């Protein structure tokens, strides 16, 4: 099993969710986050005063899938979340040692 952690632009969330559902992803966790990378924030004007926004709003997706499905999920996120502009996000893929469905006690692949 693989844990896929993706950070994307917030306005891409629904489009990415629909694309992942179409390829067979049955669940994900979504968190609103703030961060910076190459983008290093930006400046905005509020009530006539300019100020720096050092952390940019993003959405973090956490998805656990079978190892065989991981590459397809990464490709789907990459294709769907891409705008071609700086700040499109990042994707990380990690190994998952164990999964348990709390309600039934099912483990590993059955728990997904």
Architecture overview:
- The chain has 112 residues and is α+β, with helices and mostly antiparallel strands.
- The chain has a single domain, classed as Alpha-Beta Plaits (2-Layer Sandwich).
- 20% of the residues lie in helices and 37% in strands.
- The chain is built from two helices and six strands.
- The protein has helices spanning 13-22, 70-81, and strands at 2-8, 29-35, 42-46, 49-53, 56-65, 89-95.
- A four-stranded antiparallel β-sheet has the order 2-5-1-6, with helices on one face. A two-stranded antiparallel ribbon has the order 3-4.
- Strand 3 (42-46) and strand 4 (49-53) form a beta hairpin.
- Helix 1 (13-22) packs antiparallel against helix 2 (70-81).
- The termini are close together.
What labels describe this entry?
6 strands; Alpha-Beta Plaits; alpha+beta; two-stranded antiparallel ribbon
Would you spell out the secondary-structure blueprint of this structure?
Blueprint: E1 2-8, H1 13-22, E2 29-35, E3 42-46, E4 49-53, E5 56-65, H2 70-81, E6 89-95
Antiparallel strand pairs: 1-5, 1-6, 2-5, 3-4
Helix pairs in contact: 1-2
